[in-house]
Specification:
The chain has one domain. The protein is built from 13 helices and 6 strands. Helix content is about 70%, strand content about 5%. The strands form 3 sheets. Strands 1-2 form a two-stranded antiparallel sheet. Strands 3-4 form a two-stranded antiparallel sheet. A two-stranded antiparallel sheet has the order 5-6.
């Protein structure tokens, strides 16, 4: 087995090298090239950008795992590799042809069920001092809902250069801190590889972006975030949902806001996301200012979550309620602007 620092270094170099290579191939062939006249970031970018970053991240992370462990022994191999294969295939197809939203939901549900096949199940939740056991089969339903929700949450915040990648790094860091405090080592097998790959990706994705994460990357990041949270933030059979919500509050808030705004048309793409509101109405169309501000908010949420987990667990519910009220006020103000 290879030492962790060497494996992480290889993942970093490999991610950067693959992005450089895949970007040139995309620009040359037009394959997976995000056209500014028909793309998910319409009105933001004015030049074609290859959506190959996620493919590079997935390949590099998988190779890093094999170099470090000779396979991913902590998972049942078949469900894990089927999950990766499905999300890569559907992500490439969606970036190329745009998949019907119903097909995407079915695919996400299948991925969620494969995670259950790997033993990832929410059997109980902990909200501050409250411990709530989840009876079967509702534990399966809750797990599927959480995984699908996280996939869509990450997908929806992937609208500005560096936003999804940077947010992913911060949330994964929060998962590592939380799992350490809960004496759970599972996330350390996978999360560092993803963090290193995302840092390499951000060198090409921060404004002005040379590559996008694409559907492959956002789906991979969403499902791995959900899995690592469920496994890493569970202790004594209870998933620390309050901490998970706090450190993931930004993408969760955005996906809920999108559902409220769009209703039955929740799947349609628009420029009404939280980051778009800040971009257009607050920061005068400056992507760096908008993204750095949201990174700062994510870091603040991470700090609040860690303090809650360490010292003020009884304040978890009041913090969540205060956050909900605060977000509602912010959304109301942004909607009127």
């Amino acid at each position: 087995m290879m030492s962790p620092p060497l494996a992480w270094s290889i993942v970093f170099v490999l991610t950067a090298g693959l992005i450089f290579l895949l970007r040139r191939i995309s620009l040359w062939t037009g394959f997976l090239l995000d056209n500014p006249h028909n793309n998910s970031k319409a009105g933001i970018h004015t030049y074609p950008v290859p959506s190959v970053g996620g493919i590079a991240v997935v390949i590099a992370v998988m190779i890093g795992i094999w170099l470090r462990y000779g396979g991913f022994e902590a998972w049942n191999h078949i469900p894990f590799y089927l999950t990766v294969l499905i999300l890569v295939a559907v992500g490439i197809i969606d970036d190329t042809f745009i998949v019907n939203h119903r097909v995407k939901l079915v695919t996400q549900a299948a991925i969620a069920m494969l995670t259950i096949g790997s033993g990832i199940v929410i059997q109980g939740v902990k909200l501050g001092p409250l411990q709530i056991a989840v009876a079967h089969p509702f534990d399966y339903f809750l797990t599927i809902f959480y995984v699908m929700g996280m996939i869509n949450a990450i997908n929806m915040i992937d609208g500005l250069d560096g936003l999804a990648g940077g947010t992913g790094v911060i949330i994964l860091t929060g998962v590592l801190i939380g799992s350490y405090l809960l004496q759970n080592t599972f996330p350390y097998m996978l999360a560092p590889f993803i963090i290193v790959a995302l840092v390499a990706f951000l060198m090409f994705n921060f404004h002005p972006a040379k590559v996008f994460l694409g559907e492959v990357g956002s789906m991979f990041l969403g499902v791995t975030l959900a899995v690592l949270q469920i496994r890493g933030l569970t202790s004594g059979g209870y998933f620390y949902l309050g901490y998970a919500i706090i450190i993931t509050a930004f993408p969760i808030t955005d996906v809920l806001w999108s559902i409220v705004r769009r209703g039955k048309h929740y799947h349609e793409r628009d420029l009404g996301h939280l980051h778009h509101r800040l971009y257009f109405n607050v920061f005068n169309k400056s992507q760096p200012k908008t993204v750095l501000t949201l990174w700062g908010i994510n870091l603040l949420l991470l700090g609040i979550g860690v303090l809650t987990l360490l010292y003020y667990e009884t304040l978890c519910i009041p913090i969540l309620l205060t956050g909900i009220v605060g977000v509602a006020i912010i959304l109301y103000v942004l909607k009127r602007r």
